[in-house]
Amino acid sequence: MTAETPVEHLTEDAARAELARLAHQIAQADAAYHLHDAPEISDAAYDALKRRNAEIEARFPALIRPDSPSARVGAAPAEGFAKVRHERRMLSLENAFEPAEIAEFDARIRRYLGLGDDAPLIYTAEPKIDGLSLSLRYEGGRLVQAATRGDGETGENVTANARTLSDIPARIEGAPDILEVRGEVYMAHADFEALNTRQAEAGQKTFANPRNAAAGSLRQLDPAITASRPLRFFAYGWGALSAPLADTQKGAIDRLEKFGFPVNPWTALCDGPDALLAQYAAIEQRRATLGYDIDGVVYKVDDLALQDRLGFRSTTPRWAIAHKFPAELAWTRLERIEIQVGRTGALSPVARLMPVTVGGVVVSNATLHNEDYIAGRDSRGMAIRDGKDFREGDWVQVYRAGDVIPKLADVDLSKRPPDAAPYAFPAICPECGSDAIREESDSVRRCTGGLICPAQAVERLKHFVSRNAFDIEGLGAKQVEMFYRDEVLPIREPADIFTLEARDRANIPKLKNRDGWGEKSATNLFAAIQARRTIPLHRLIFALGIRHVGEVNADLLARNYLTWQAFEAAMTNATVGGGAEWEQLLSIDGVGQVLASSLVTAFHQPAERASIDRLVAHLSVEPAQPRGQVDSPVAGKTVVFTGTLERMTRAEAKARAEALGAKVAGSVSKKTDLVVAGPGAGSKAKQAADLGIETIDEEAWLQLIGGA
Ligand SMILES: NC(=O)c1ccc[n+]([C@@H]2O[C@H](COP(=O)([O-])OP(=O)(O)OC[C@H]3O[C@@H](n4cnc5c(N)ncnc54)[C@H](O)[C@@H]3O)[C@@H](O)[C@H]2O)c1
Ligand SMILES: [Zn+2]
């Protein structure tokens, strides 16, 4: 995939081709989202595709396709449901993100209606519920039909399903003879969590967020399934009706409430853009405590006569707009700070949050990095966030972009509970009670328990079996946790993995007779372990999990010492700070004091050393290829990665390129030989093009290095 060309640089041919591609991609995303209730891309990525499509269409109106995504709503009804033709179309809403767009919305309406700047113009502002829309047709006060939006013209008949919702009255009194009530079906947070727990226990699929759960639950061919799902409903509008409900939007909603429909309590009347923005801020602050997902605030012209005059565009009303929340930010409560102990003993603080949906994913944890970060300082003691600290009970802003681990971006001091105390970072390990010490040069506090610390031991085992280490099929993080706690057949250190089969022979019950295991999976596991008794040197060094020894350093060490015997002898004979072995270690290009002393210390720590010796006794270690003799098409080349990589992380890509003898640079220059660009590659790909540097995509890269 190549980088996006700025719209003003597109040729007509390129624009036509890109519009075709976007129409296809958007239709695919729409089907996944609306038809299968299982989105394949994030909402932000989807919105970016739509925006790009709109920009190109604006510059090349002649190229607008008959199947243009901007002229469509949702997706056609799914197979299996009877179809319902809507008497009045069910539309989408125009989106806005910036305050300036709201001022423009107001100005546009005034121009359209010929209203002066000072003429009064009232709007309603109400939460935009993140569920799916439903149209309920009442005739003579009886519910006769319920339909989803579908493609706006034709929806799915879900009458029997809708009847199972207790929020939806089967009969209403005092309503016009014909009335289509429209609103949103949604699932509350608590119900969503309970449903996902039940689904997981029953081995059924779980849902990514409450919206998907609501849509997937309403759109069932078997109404009994819908009945078993805790769905709710808010009414916010209407379709066909035989007599008007009121003169105003608010008046009409009040009548729907009188008929017995739940309506959203946070609906307000606002007299212009400033009041709308104030209401937006107020609703955004409440977002996490509402108990259900909202993804913005909807503004509507209150006067229904004016709504009629304003009318509709192809897919949206002119009299309403959805002011969306930024896709990646949300406010919520920091309930607790917990400490996790990692492989190297690092105490990592984690924020436990009141769950909030950010970018389509329910977030309940965020990283807090270290104690300085919690206290509002960086590693040099300089204030960050204006020196504001995080405390349990605080109201915090969560940030999540792409697949990045959620972070806390800010804290609202005006909402700090009066009894909230500064967080006291523990000085002892919560897992094993050993002292947790912070060295001067380090921002991290570490448990000194080493292998006696269960948390460190488990994390080291997980690392040992991980993909770039021993990579033992059937022995993943979950199994490691289980075996670690097992009384009969425990794995407490790597050597235990290689005695597992022999010990199992002596045990009752046998592994194959245990919960979660069978004859086949047990046999396969033993075979997978057997296969790993022969292991390349660099993998073994990496697998030991010594601090600062990542894949790249493990490879470096392997290529220098070549055999386990040589490596082990050098580490054993070296002393930190001096001597021939120490000097030799430091003379390796890429090995510094920190790495060297970490290695030597590990080999001189008696418990560690004994554990390594016990392990190696079971292995046959393959020697490495000498350094500098890397035979690969990218050896000696300077490579730059840019954009999103889909098959590997950036760190992985870098490590693999380096292992193949390439140099990986962060920016494009004349010295660059090759640019690997994924989706979203920006200026770097353009620079490469300007400099005439070869640019390839991830797939081509994998082929080049023989890893596709
Ligand atoms: N991730 C994906 O692949 C993917 C694919 C398609 C759509 N989407 C998401 O869906 C959005 C587009 O869907 P859309 O066309 O339904 O637009 P929308 O959901 O952004 O807005 C229109 C809908 O808002 C709902 N709504 C909720 N509260 C309302 C209220 N108080 N008043 C009026 N309407 C209210 C109605 O159901 C209405 O149909 C995208 O922005 C994206 O976030 C994602
Ligand atoms: Zn510990």
What features would you describe in this structure?
Belongs to the NAD-dependent DNA ligase family. LigA subfamily. The active site is at residue 128. Its EC number is 6.5.1.2. There is one protein chain. The protein has 24 helices and 24 strands. With 708 residues, the protein is α+β, with helices and mostly antiparallel strands. It folds into 6 domains: 21-72, Helix Hairpins; 95-324, D-amino Acid Aminotransferase, Chain A, domain 1 (2-Layer Sandwich), CATH 3.30.470.30; 329-415, OB fold (Dihydrolipoamide Acetyltransferase, E2P); 450-532, Orthogonal Bundle (DNA polymerase, domain 1), CATH 1.10.150.20; 536-622, DNA polymerase, domain 1 (Orthogonal Bundle); 638-704, 3-Layer(aba) Sandwich (Rossmann fold). It has a 5-stranded mixed beta sheet with strand order 2-11-10-3-9. A 5-stranded antiparallel beta sheet has the order 14-13-12-15-16. It has a 4-stranded antiparallel beta sheet with strand order 5-4-7-8. Helix 22 (650-659) links the parallel strand 21 and strand 22 (663-665). The radius of gyration is 31 Å and the shape is elongated. The protein starts with 11 loop residues before the first helix and ends with a helix. Nicotinamide-adenine-dinucleotide binds next to helix 1, helix 2, strand 3 and strand 8.
